[in-house]
Specification:
By secondary structure, the protein is mainly beta. It folds into five domains: about 20-25 and about 385-515; about 55-205, Galactose-binding domain-like (Jelly Rolls, Sandwich), CATH 2.60.120.260; about 210-380, Galactose-binding domain-like (Jelly Rolls); about 520-650, Immunoglobulin-like, CATH 2.60.40; about 655-755, Immunoglobulin-like, CATH 2.60.40.4070. The protein is built from seven helices and 50 strands. The longest helix has 7 residues, at about 350-355.
Length: about 750
């Protein structure tokens, strides 16, 4: 939790106004975000760009790599990784030849397309040397135990009589053998020869490496269509740790009476433009592919109506002979947005078991696919499509009135910054279970971790039951606060979004402006609660403020449908108020200051078109200016109103197209100004967003004579038909069918009327 002392507090224009401001790296670092997708750039935050065709030797230190060992001239060895062609390394000629070597640890296993060795152009290159490559696999003793400090080099090449200053090593088997360690043994070299750079070209930055440490997630479920046995992350995380020897080995052998499917799901922590997934199942002393029938899918996080993820399937079928030979499956597909990567596979084939018989060992190997995996690598390019950062719980110490939220940053074309907030007054204490890396895990997962992988159990304070949902996106910097207040606690969320992969936004600072409350806890309610759609209704809004020592003199009322003021009463007495109206509602200024306990009634008329229409009231003080206002909470304000809410409902059987009125039953387009055209009036109700509404005129044979379609929001609308066909010619006299059609949020609706044309 973050107290106001931990953030920068600044005075703001206005009486007793303050600002909590996040504009330092030390503050941003306390926010929750995927470390692999977001970086601190000075005191700003911005997405991390992921690249294609990356030199994996250039950033070894980011993964804990570097010079693993060197036998001679140790202090110059790091120069072969510094990117500077003017510096380099060579063994000292007078040292033992056994010490003429250097080893590079790339810090993680990479899929290398080629390895390039660059030598100083000003002198001859090494003329005799050997290159050894290792997956990081250690040698083992006679009983199979790894020998500490040892390495098995499965690829090697000797270069004789070399005269090239730029040497490229790219055999086909290289890309099929992910490597982590390179060893160069020099056998002969001319004086002044120097190796200046080692380049390891790979497909790009691996989005999955060290996934859990960088803000992503992993889930493995055996028999996900049945009992759904969750696999321990202690074992599962080995398939994304960047180490080939430390792969995930599935110990489950579910021999059930139904076909058993298992599932691996990676959450990359953000949405990227993904086009290549590599499954490294088993390489090393022996190669093999531990999947038979499997599927590869990706999802950008979009949800289906039932709340499940929508998936794009890139492969579904049987593994091939080449997969078994290499132990690898490469899946390349057109680039698309992806946050989740999933592998579904048939781990136990009951049809196979029935065919071969359930007894004996044959079915174990023929009908079982373990799915063990050494590494999953995911590649893409550009900036993540969207990354989010969420603030710690902000504690103001006491209830504060939230006035506005503002920020600054850069938003190149095709990018945007999104800011949301939520607030509350209650927090609850919970136990937070963490692994050894400090990442929060579920209690069940924590229990299944081996003791050395368990982290501490912390007591944390989280949002309680009275918290508001996340607000809508703030329309602009400096906009009024959208979360209820006064409240003691606040959380902020920002998303850095790009629609194109080659540019990204940057957030420089984010601030919330707040003041002391105008009044303590204040409740308001509206009556009546149930109204007919599209019909003008008279409402009363009752409001009773809590303690307000200084008082206030203004109240605003706003809604998605325009409320039209008619009368104001204070403690039952009519008050002569000044009224200001706009497209969202009205504000009244009272001749006297209102105090705690006063009962205020605002009467107004309005026409409701949307289910659950809210009427929101705000307290204001003319002495404080327009920038400070306090939202009124829904609740019991008066015994005269049995409501305790500010939400008005429509009948459950409300039509989408209601109150359809035609200006005439017969159109006579003869130019005499009497019924020359048909005016069609209709109320569109209970839609949350703009919807296409279409009007068509059909002849009795069903042919469309004229049509018009518009995107409309809830409210009153009208169409006009001039009696002419779509081509502009007059429609022949006769009887026609008028059709109104809307495709609503949850259903479609059609209204039919007959209309005549006469001359």
């Amino acid at each position: 939790m973050l107290g106001i002392g931990a953030a920068l507090l600044c005075p703001v224009t206005g009486a007793s106004a303050e600002q909590m401001r996040f504009d330092r790296a030390s503050q941003w670092s306390q926010w929750e975000y995927a470390r692999s997708a977001v970086r601190l750039a000075g005191n700003s935050v911005e997405p991390v760009r992921f690249r294609k065709d990356v030199n994996a030797a250039a950033n070894v230190t980011e993964f804990g790599g570097g010079i693993l060992d060197v036998g001679s001239n140790r202090f110059q060895a790091g120069r072969i990784l510094d990117g500077d062609p003017a510096t380099g390394w060579a063994p000292e000629p007078d040292t033992d030849r056994e010490d003429w070597f250097v080893e590079i640890d790339l810090g993680r296993a990479v899929s290398a397309r080629r390895i390039e060795l660059l030598f100083d152009e000003g002198s001859p290159p090494f003329d005799l040397f050997e290159l050894f490559l290792s997956t990081g696999e250690p040698a083992v003793d006679l009983v199979g135990n790894p020998i500490e400090g040892s390495l098995v080099f499965r690829l090697s090449e000797r270069f004789r009589e070399n005269q090239r200053h730029h040497l490229v090593y790219e055999p086909e088997i290289l890309f099929e053998t992910p490597i982590q360690v390179l060893r160069l043994e020099v056998l002969s070299f001319p004086p002044e020869a120097r190796l200046t750079e080692v380049i390891v070209e790979t497909p790009g930055d691996n989005l999955a490496v060290n996934l859990l440490d960088r803000g992503g997630a992993l889930e493995i479920v055996n028999d996900f269509t049945g009992d759904g046995d969750l696999v321990s992350l202690t074992n599962g995380q080995l398939m994304v740790d960047g180490s080939i020897p430390n792969g995930w080995r599935n110990g489950s052998e579910p021999r059930k009476t139904h076909p058993t499917w298992s599932q691996i799901t990676l959450d990359l922590g953000a949405t990227y433009l993904v086009d290549f997934v590599r499954i490294i199942s088993s390489i090393g002393a022996g190669r093999g592919f531990n999947f038979k029938l499997y599927e590869l899918l990706t999802s950008d996080g979009s949800l289906a109506p039932d709340g499940s993820l929508i998936w794009d399937k890139h492969f579904s079928g049987l593994a091939g002979d080449r997969n078994q030979q290499t132990g690898i499956a490469d899946h390349v597909f057109p680039a698309l947005s992806g946050r989740f990567v999933r592998i579904n596979w048939l781990i136990w084939d009951t049809a196979c078991a029935d065919f071969f018989g359930t007894a004996g060992q044959n079915t174990k190997w023929i009908c079982f696919a373990r799915g063990s995996t050494q590494e999953i690598q995911v590649f893409g390019e550009g900036f993540p499509r969207a990354v989010g950062l969420t603030s710690p719980l902000i504690d103001f110490g006491e209830a504060k009135n939230l006035n506005s939220v503002e920020w600054a940053g850069t938003t190149p074309d095709g990018t945007r910054l999104e800011v949301r907030s939520r607030s509350g007054s209650d927090v609850v204490e919970q136990l937070a279970f963490r692994d050894k890396n400090g990442k929060e895990v579920t209690p069940r997962k924590w229990e299944r971790l081996i003791p050395s992988f368990r982290g501490p159990i912390d007591t944390v304070r989280v949002a309680g039951g009275d918290w508001s949902p996340w607000s809508t996106i703030y329309p602009e910097s400096g906009a009024r606060a959208l979360s209820p207040s006064p409240r003691r606690y606040l959380e902020l969320n920002t998303r850095l979004v790009t629609e194109v992969s080659d540019v990204a936004p940057r957030m420089d600072w984010l601030a919330v402006n707040f003041t002391d409350p105008i009044a303590e806890e204040t409740f308001g309610e509206v009556v009546p609660l149930l109204v007919r759609p599209g019909v003008e209704t008279e409402f009363s809004y009752f409001l009773r403020p809590g303690s307000s020592p200084a008082g206030f003199d203004q109240i605003s009322l706003q809604a998605s449908t325009v409320p039209r003021f008619s009368l104001a009463l204070v403690n039952g007495v009519v008050s002569d108020v000044a009224v200001e109206s706009d497209s969202s509602g009205f504000r009244v200024t009272f001749p006297q200051r209102l105090r705690g306990g006063d009962l205020v009634e605002l009467r107004f008329g309005s026409t409701v078109f949307i289910q659950s229409t809210r009427f929101d009231a705000f307290l204001q003080d003319s002495r404080l200016g327009d920038g400070i206002r306090q939202q009124v909470d829904a609740g019991d304000a008066s015994d005269e109103a049995v409501s305790s809410t500010n939400v008005v409902s429509l009948p459950l059987n409300t039509k989408l197209l209601d109150n359809v009125v035609l200006s005439a039953r017969v159109v006579t387009p003869n130019g005499d100004l009497s019924n020359d055209e048909l005016r069609i009036e209709v109320d569109l109700t209970t839609v949350l967003a703009t919807r296409p509404v279409r009007v068509r005129i059909h002849d009795l044979a069903g042919r469309t004579v004229w049509e018009e379609e518009r995107l409309l929001s809830a409210g009153e609308h009208s169409y006009t038909w001039s009696g002419r066909r779509q081509d502009g010619r007059l429609a022949p006299p006769g009887l026609y069918l008028l059709e109104l059609f809307v495709n609503g949020d949850a259903k479609q609706e059609r209204v039919l009327r007959t209309v005549g044309v006469a001359y």
